[in-house]
Records
---
Amino acid sequence: MPLILILWYISIIVSMFLNYGTAYRLTRNGGDNGIALFGWFFALAFAGIVPGLCIWLWFKHKEI
């Protein structure tokens, strides 16, 4: 497997961990229930496809 695919796969795994924290923070600010948490996690999972976008979102919402 090429090195670029391995690095992209690792960045997606790291993004999923960061997505959960970001989704939890966004859920806590809005509707505090499991459906909202799932919705934010699902939306942020699509952002995890783009390398670096979830890291930027995590830092952006960490200060809220």
---
Amino acid sequence: MSQAQQEMEEAVADWLRAYENHKRYLAATNRLFTVFTRSWGGSPRYIAAAFTDFRSALLRNSGYKPVEVNEVFPAQKSESK
């Protein structure tokens, strides 16, 4: 097997593992959102923003730096012109 072919196979395998982790992350996020909504006492209108803040707080409280949290959950910018 050539070096290029071996590198390609390793890159493909790495990419597929990342996809599986992404699927697990999405499933875990969906589960967290479901549990969060069950305990939500505020207006349904604000639940998405509250959940985003909750996830950001979880990351910060778990030791992630603010810049790392902002990379995962960037602030929404207004689309109005």
---
Amino acid sequence: MADVVVTVPKRFGLVAWIAEGDPAGAPWSGNIWHFNLWGRPPQIAPGERVYVVYNGKLRGYAPLVRISRAGPDFSLVRHGGAVAVTIDEEITGFRGYRYRWWEIEQERPFPDWRIP
């Protein structure tokens, strides 16, 4: 299995995404969060990482809890536990998901992840 990468659309906005809940560094609120996608779900197992990109920058990851299916759509489901990390590479936004293409050793803490 493998970690996956998703993009928050610019039109949705970073503030709106953060407001959805349990951002990096926050304790788990007890809520369950879904990142909705369509098509074929990725080959990923619970505990593996779902990375998030916004405005060309890797913002961090959260551990996958499960994949939830609803017809042709699916959700990557997470609880708390998000971690702010980035890499020294600009990432162009994309639809759907991709598998992580960088080495974990390239990741570094990203204390300014909330800045668009």
---
Amino acid sequence: MGLLVAAAVLGWKRGPDIFPRVQGWFSEETGTLEVLPSPELADAALDRFERFRRGEGGDQLSLSAVEVVSVIRYAAPGLVPSGVADPDVEFRDGRVTLTARMAVAAFPGLPTLDGVLEFVPDTVSMSVQGTLAPLNEDRVALIVHGVHASFVPVPLPDGMIPSILTALGRRPREGLPDDGLVFPLPDGVESAHVVRDRLILVREG
């Protein structure tokens, strides 16, 4: 789960140069165009990222959640750890929500919730909500404010967040709080933050 944020800051090499072809459809209920994650959108996002990193088109790059999800799913093989499926990302009001289906057996360090995990399906949906914050000159942290699991109708207790993050792959680092996950920024990127529903990358000056 934690590796999804590394994907979100786009620390990958450029994909093939192709013209983007966005897949989507018109919702019968809203009449609006819904853009779906796709390999073509992943290639287009990586192409924009490489041009941004070269200094073409300004010092900031704005990415939508669907662009980030496209890169995670289609352009970064091996990035999502074993036991995690259908990763998704949402940006809303400056916050980040990471969601995925997880095989419980792949994360034996997850807290038992007083035995609750013994009675849930083999695969559950879990989401982590938080905000991005700078950690040092080449890293960013996701400070986690809440964790939800599909088998529990309310957010999991805040006191469980550190042990949950540890089970999901968190590693301690100087200056990182117990409720934080840390990830390196890609070369050429000075910082990353979320504004409303967009991920903003700032190029090194």
